[in-house]
Amino acid sequence: MLHIVACIKQVPDTKIIKMNPKTNTMDRSSAPAILNPYDSHAVEEAVRLRSRYGGVVSVLTMGPPPAVKAIKKCIEIGADEGYMITDRAFAGADTLATSYALTKALQKIADIRPIDLIVCGKMTIDGDTGQVGPGIARRLDMPPLTSVNKVAEINREEGYAIVHRKLEDGYEVIRSTLPCLLSVEKDINEVPYSSLPNMLRAARYQPIIWSVADLGEIDKTQLGLKGSPTIVSSVWAPQKPQGGKLLEGSYDEQIRQLLDVVLTRKELFEAQAGAGGGAS
Ligand SMILES: Cc1cc2nc3c(=O)[nH]c(=O)nc-3n(C[C@H](O)[C@H](O)[C@H](O)COP(=O)(O)OP(=O)(O)OC[C@H]3O[C@@H](n4cnc5c(N)ncnc54)[C@H](O)[C@@H]3O)c2cc1C
């Protein structure tokens, strides 16, 4: 039976979040926590593949206890099972330590039910690195297929997947062995409104929760802050560009204003060129 695991993360809604002007860090309390939007597409794709081929969809997150809400959101989308790893030892993890902890959890999930496919979002909207998916794939020694915007075929019996990878000027078709890991683009699917039965199931659902002690043999020096070689040397908010003019009025008026600017620039340029200034 096809077993797909989607890795998901709860993130602050960065459309709303405020920055602390003193520390230049995110004030996480200023915005609600949501399921990382890319991950909702990862879960939706897993659910669609289950509809095509049968099987089971599990979701996995590493996060603080309130991240249960993100798992419930995935159950609303249609996932069957939710796993969460949560422990103070995971705190302060960079992408290397995050991928290590998630890999340990994935190995434990695979002991319960072998995994055919892991699906991640392309990136998170808070950390934004896109490193965790490929990090997991490397640790599990499986092919990482990034920027996937279509899953053309999964053949569990013959052990392969065919996907489309988005490129700047088109896409490429890749055939990979299973198991493999996909990082998916937002345009891979549209996440529909949740059905009432899924919402009711999500409201009652309690995920399986593991701490470090539940993950079996584990190298604690690779977890959390201790296992995180990344050093954030400074953080700053980009300066707002100075000058510029906001166009106002109707669409036609804005076009007229824009043409005025362009023509004035052109006249200035020609005047300079005529005076021997040349182009610069
Ligand atoms: C020095 C340092 C300290 C940090 N300390 C903290 C901290 O204390 N608390 C904190 O919240 N963050 C902390 N971070 C941020 C942390 O590294 C990232 O949140 C985490 O590693 C995921 O990276 P990302 O958000 O860039 O994910 P990406 O690599 O952009 O995510 C890609 C995909 O991987 C999967 N994924 C990512 N994270 C998870 C997860 N946690 N569970 C399941 N799937 C996941 C999702 O499918 C996601 O779409 C720290 C970072 C650094 C560099």
TrEMBL record:
Gene3D superfamilies on file: HUPs
Instruction: Enumerate the Pfam families for this protein.
Output: ETF
Can you give the residue ranges of the Electron transfer flavoprotein alpha/beta-subunit N-terminal domain? 23-219
Q: Which domain of life is it from?
A: Bacteria
Single Gene Ontology MF annotation: electron transfer activity
Q: Which SUPFAM superfamilies match?
A: Adenine nucleotide alpha hydrolases-like (SSF52402)
Cofactors: AMP
Q: Give the family this protein belongs to, as stated in its UniProt record.
A: Belongs to the ETF beta-subunit/FixA family.
What is this protein's record name?
A: Electron transfer flavoprotein small subunit
Originating organism = Cohnella lupini
